[in-house]
Write a structure and sequence with these properties.
There is one protein chain. The chain is an alpha/beta fold and about 250 residues long. It folds into 2 domains: about 120 residues, 3-Layer(aba) Sandwich (Rossmann fold), CATH 3.40.50.2300; about 110 residues, Arc Repressor Mutant, subunit A (Orthogonal Bundle), CATH 1.10.10. About 40% of the residues lie in helices and about 20% in strands. The protein has 8 helices and 11 strands. A 5-stranded parallel beta sheet has the order 2-1-3-4-5, sandwiched between helices. Strands 6-7-8-9 form a 4-stranded antiparallel beta sheet, covered by helices on one side. The termini are far apart.
């Protein structure tokens, strides 16, 4: 559990430093800190976190406003920190995707205890499947093996050349969807609708950015992709025999 990656988000530097110090004393080593919702979104787009501690009241976008956007990248537990204490405020936090609610001022060790509790549940759901073997109910874990990389569906894990690679939630979901439909061409709008669950509304750039992020992870040379190729005028497809598909780069 202590190898979990944690993101602390608060505009008060003193709180960030105090929480980081306490967590390090408790054995956690992978801790990142940012001071705004915008920085939190950038961090979650670039790295996979196992838990996020998110302040509610921050300049600019609040934690409550940021949470739905964070959920586009991660399903990790979100613990809200706030001075608000009403039941309505707490329910608002849960409604936008929060998993726990901690009011200020707080006992740092209580926060650590709640972090451990959330991580225990979250990591328990991941660990059995990360082995790529058998799930808790006896079913075989679903693995899409493309030689250079493997996608473990239940674990939400991408392995490239034998190494686990961090993968934001929507990047992983897009890759998983393509893995489930190899050699089939998808237009950008169709991919957006299938993965994001809504119509694209002319937002082609989102799919292009996520395709680029996948290529950065699975391709030997992202500028000359062999797995996720563009079929001119039609869309993208994931080929399961890249050595035969070089003509579609």
């Amino acid at each position: 559990m202590n190898d979990a990656s944690i993101l602390l988000v608060d505009d008060e530097l003193a709180i960030l430093e105090m929480m980081k110090t306490v967590l390090r004393k408790e054995g956690f080593t992978d801790i990142d800190t940012v001071r705004s919702a915008e920085e939190a979104l950038e961090s979650c787009a670039a790295k996979t976190y196992h838990l996020i501690v998110l302040d509610v009241m921050m300049p600019g976008r609040s934690g409550l406003e940021a949470a739905p956007f964070l959920r586009q990248y991660t399903d990790a537990p979100i613990l809200f920190l706030t001075a608000r204490t009403s039941d309505f405020d707490k329910l608002s936090g849960f409604a936008v995707g929060g998993d726990d609610y901690i009011t200020k001022p707080f006992n740092p060790m209580e926060v650590v205890a709640r972090i451990r509790s959330q991580l225990r549940r979250y990591m328990a759901a991941l660990r059995p499947n990360e082995q790529g073997k058998v799930l808790g109910d006896g079913r075989r874990a679903t693995v899409y093996d493309y030689g250079r990389f493997q996608v473990y569906e239940e674990a939400g894990e991408l392995v490239v050349n034998g190494q686990s690679v961090s993968c934001p939630a929507l990047v992983f979901q897009l890759l998983l969807y393509l893995c489930k439909h190899p050699n089939r061409i998808f237009g950008k709008s169709e991919l957006y609708q299938q993965v994001w669950g809504v119509d694209a509304l002319n937002d082609d750039n989102t799919v292009m950015v996520h395709i680029h992020r996948i290529r950065e992870r699975i391709e030997e040379d992202p500028s000359r992709p062999k797995f996720i190729v563009n079929v001119r005028g039609m869309g993208y497809k994931l080929v399961n025999k890249p050595e035969q598909e070089k003509g579609h780069l």
